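Lab notebook page, bench 4
Experiment: in silico fold of construct C2
Operator: M.H.
Input chain length: 403 residues
Purpose: comparison with the prior construct
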Amino acid sequence: MRPRVDFSLPEVRRIALSAQGLDAPRRRARSRASLLQTIERLGVVQIDAVNVLARAHYVPLFSRHGPYEISCLDDAAYGASRTLFEYWGHQASLLPVSLQPLFRWRMARAASLEQIYGGLARFVRERRAYVDSVLAEVAARGPLRASELSSSTPRTGGWWGWSDAKRALEFLFWAGKVTTASRRSFERVYDLTERVLPPEVIAAPTPSVADAHRELVRLSSRALGVATDDDLADYFRLRLGDVRPRIGELVEERALVPVRIDGIAKVAYLAAGAKLPRAATGRGILSPFDPLVWHRARTHRLFDFHYRIAIYTPAHLREHGYYVLPFLDGEALAARVDLKAAREEQKLLVQAAHLEPGADAKKTADSLAAELRDVARWLGLETIEVTRKGSLAVALSAALTCS
């Protein structure tokens, strides 16, 4: 695409959707390799413990590929031939192992008690000898869960309810000394990083902080297509002051092109090689932790979609439901749907369905009905049950009944 100075908002939406692999009808993943190509494209997949529908890191691949074998992703993250690793990318995340050197600056800052939670930093300062003993025990006995350490005690109240053993391990994880070897019932099993990651990754040189930040901004720009400086900073949770000089360098080497977007005051940056489709025709439910929508200010700016996850909101203040997922239909976030996998009953529960302003109810309901059938098939659920709550619920129920 030839660089331009001005873009309309619909054009920017299509660029963003193309960069995220959401602009066209999805191609089913035929292999682990095709799933990994998507993760390479995104750069990062956020992890979250919430399992109302499915684990957060599973859903973005479904959104882009439809039903796929979850075991392929698990094997890439925790199998013998691992190609993904866990670290703080955008919050807790799965990342390609090749990116590990780009995060060593963050590990070094954590090790020196910079840029980590204040409560955890205080704990490490006060219990340094204990933290060292935990690292020694993992080295001698690992891989281990926090509960398997010899010094482990039951969880107590207070900071996240973590035991001292868990706090020590999480600090060591943040500092890059240990990493996730596997998970059992979603609980981390820790081992020394050098015993988990491929030897060639461990042996790779450590870039300077500036070089690492530049590459992370470059990756962010490719994944976003077109983005403001705060969008680029948010993707890998970098400080804006660290990002701005790197943006200038990438503009100078023509990896980024400053552009204006109609109706938006801030300068944005177009990634070299970004594509502008004539139309966006994909569809998909989006996890609250999907990279298309996780930066809520950008979601509102691009799609006029005000979105907050409601799982931590008191029930009487929830406007759209408990675990609400945006529904992408073509170029618009056309609806939001509160979903739950009732696994024992083999049901996909639609607890509420709301139509967005300007969206066509019949078209959106038909498209969402097809999406929910794919969701149910993916999760092995036999039926879909719609609670008649929300402005789209009646039309959605009819669409599911008629087809």
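Observations: Residues 106 and 175 are 8 Å apart (CA to CA). The chain is about 40% helix and 20% strand.
Next step: discuss at group meeting.
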